[in-house]
Amino acid sequence: MSTGALTIDLDALAANWRALDAMTGCETGAVVKANGYGLGAGRVARKLAEAGARRFFVAVAEEGAAVRRAVGPEAEIYVFAGHMEGDARRLSEAGLIPMLNSINQLARHMEALPGHPFGIQLDTGMNRLGFEWADWAEAAPIALDNGPLWLMSHLACADEPDHEMNAYQLDIFRQMTDGLGVPRSLSATGGILLGPDYHFDMTRPGIGLYGGLPFEDAQAVVRLDLPVVQCRDLVAGEVVGYGNSWQADRPSRIATISGGYADGLIRSLSGKATFWHGDTPCPLVGRVSMDLITVDVTDLDGDPAYLTLLGPHQGVDSLARDAGTIGYEVLTSLGRRYVRLENPA
Ligand SMILES: *Cc1c(COP(=O)(O)O)cnc(C)c1O
Question: Which residue range forms the structural domain that includes residue 141?
């Protein structure tokens, strides 16, 4: 095998969904946008449906069709971007439910797909998606008359439990939705951990399902092994890679492995990441290049066939720290060249 192998632990994924579900007394959806956070929306959604998930969320209508094929006709699939220009046919054919974000979208939906189910997304201060308060006041009578399935909003700072924005958004959400008699959803992974006030009728976890923070008790879902292309000996003083950015200060053995920034191993990992051979750490040396990475394997007993970047010693969040980013970006950047293996197969 000459490309990296990404192994996806589907039982851990299902266990994470169940664990998040058990933290609330309400329903638990599943966010599978961005191709199931990079792991494959079809396989992820199929497994979560098997675990009991009935409501799935994608970012845009285009992503919904693959999820529909995976989960069958019964499950509900919601689209965060709502009903955009040109979406009507796709929403209708794949049976997707747009979360409408503005008066414009509401009008478009009523005109293009009258009677087709929808939800409403409200902005409670994040200023990203959803009806502004004044627009909601104007449109609510019409929207409510047409039976929205859900009213939802999204927290901006839920991964910081003490952030005052959480209580602020909760208060605004209540003011915008109390007494309307429509089921409500406010929380993603972070909001679930904020406690029952934030749960309402359904939660929408994404990252926690895939083993990422802020769900600290998550089981790891991904393992990434990269094959070694060749190994060589360096004498002290020799340099490695573009820009000569690493120089051996002792006689060294350098492994060149298959994988680079074209595979989502972003360049800011240069000189920072650690690979693993079993329990032995091996530092990345020099710069990450497009298809190749160089690793110091001097301390190993022999040349390895592959090195592990994501595994028992290093999860998506610790790799993200080395790269100066977040677990979400590590996951959704995982390269398309990797062979994706499922465990259990
Ligand atoms: C991405 C997203 C989620 C899931 O968030 P996580 O932090 O991954 O759990 C939920 N709701 C909305 C609106 C989102 O955009």
Answer: 10-209
